[in-house]
Amino acid sequence: MKLIVQKFGGTSVANAERIRNVARIITDTYRKGANVVAVVSAQGDTTDDLIAKAHEIDENPSKREMDMLLSTGEQISIALLAMAISKMGYPVISLTGRQAGFFTDSNHSRARIKRVDTERLEKELDQRKIVVVAGFQGMNRYDDITTLGRGGSDTSAVALAAELKADLCQIYTDVDGVYTADPRIVPSAQKLEEISFDEMLELASCGAQVLHNRSVEMAKKYNVNLEVLSSLEDKPGTKIKEVTRMEKLLIKGVAKDDDVVRISLIGLADHPGVAFKIFSLLAARKINVDIILQSVGRDGTKDISFTVPIDSYKAAVEVLTEERDQINNCTIDVDTDVTKISIVGSGMQSNPGVASRMFEALSEADINIEMISTSEIKISVLIRKKLGDKALNVVSEAFVK
Questions:
Q1: How many CB atoms lie within 10 A of CB 249?
Q2: What are the b/e assignments for 291-319, b being 16+ CB within 10 Å?
Q3: How would you classify the pairing of strands 168-173 and 3-8?
């Protein structure tokens, strides 16, 4: 029998009316003869509200207790959705992450899935029940609840699809697919019929908020048949796959990421091993670094600038300050007023002049580029944050016509 995993984000279950709508989507799939596992996020702004409540008590709460608190959001969603499905007359059961067999490491708030024991899930599916699973959460070896970080429900859904060998994993959101840019900012953005795993992974890593990058990485690894579509409109979505058809679009997408901070280390000693010391300190704290720029050494010193996620920069500054004697007592400068604009597309590998066209568009719009990073299918630049929306539009116009 066909098995479909369906994931629903917070906006899809934000209120009673939308929960009933999701219940209809799930039961329509079930009535067509498929087994269904639904993975659900917390309702609307529940997670943000819970974080605010925690900060009323403690500005720097324990990560373990935060996981205990935040996991309740998904548990509310799965219980309410199961009630809606049951009221419609269908067999259903809701399961927490632990009950669904998610075992993770002990990195609270950013846990990684180590394995998924699907025995309980398969037992319920064998009884032709619809199974509603709390996304975003699991349990570590100490029987403590853990959470997977922002967007973790996408990862939960793909992990289940991979482990259960599902025929399809559908990610339902408040948009009807993957666009060449955020349609709320770029009115001319086009919806893509399909996009490769590599392109989607780069877009997700560059700030596109349609899918969590870890979920795309996992889908690629296990070749999960993935589709992004709207829970609010009945229309085809975007398929994400290993190989896509040749299309006219040179660039598949343009993304903006406001959640970045630039850290500059000024006056570093210009000798071997300095960069290693800096980035090994950050790696030990599990701080991801993106764009890196090193100046040409002069007078025995050099400067290194790099970007980190906004939720990591305080920890980065803290560790670099603590270990400043290891890096020549350099000056540490922090700039939070930056944003990253990226273009992504496998077509740029065989088409010279892509970077030039991007830089020309920014130049004509009087937007200064402060840092640049490239890969085979991506070019990213750092600019002033207030110019982010303008840059997104002018770069989109340069490529997507």
A1: 16
A2: bebeeeeeeebbbbbbbbeeebbeebbeb
A3: parallel
* 103 CB-contact burial (10 Å; exposed 0-12 / middle 13-18 / buried 19+): middle
CA 401 to chain centre: 27
CA-angle at 181, arms to 176 and 182, nearest 5°: 65
Find the helix packing angle between 152-164 and 119-126, rounded to 10°.
70
What is the arrangement of strands in the sheet containing 301-309, beginning at the earlier edge strand? 292-294, 301-309, 260-269, 331-335
Identify whether the C-beta of residue 396 lies closer than 8 Å to the C-beta of residue 254.
yes
| Structure tokens that stand for 74 in this block | 């998904």
Question: pLDDT tens digits for 93-135?
Answer: 999 999 999 999 999 998 999 999 999 999 999 999 999 999 9
Helices 63-87 and 46-57 pack at an angle, to 10 degrees, of: 150
Question: In this structure, what token pair is assigned to residue 297?
Answer: 């050494």
Helical H runs in 32-170?
46-57, 63-87, 119-126, 152-164
Contact predicate 1/163, CB 8 Å: no
Which residue in this structure is represented by tokens 């917390």? 42
**Per the structure block, which two tokens stand in for 100?**
């669904």
Residue 267, SS3? strand
Res 244: pLDDT: 58
Which sign does the torsion angle of CA 205, 208, 214, 218 carry?
A: negative
Distance, in Å, from the CA atom of 339 to the CA atom of 253, rounded to the nearest integer, reads 17
Q: How far apart are CA 283 and CA 273, in angstroms?
A: 15
Task: Give which of 66, 43, 63, 42 is closest to 53, Cα–Cα.
Answer: 66
Q: If you search the block for the tokens 């050494």, which residue do you land on?
A: 297
Please, what sign has the CA dihedral across residues 340, 341, 343, 349? negative
Q: How many residues does the chain have?
A: 401
pLDDT digits (tens, 9 = 90+) for 223-260: 999 999 999 888 899 999 886 555 555 788 999 999 99
| pTM for the whole structure | 0.85
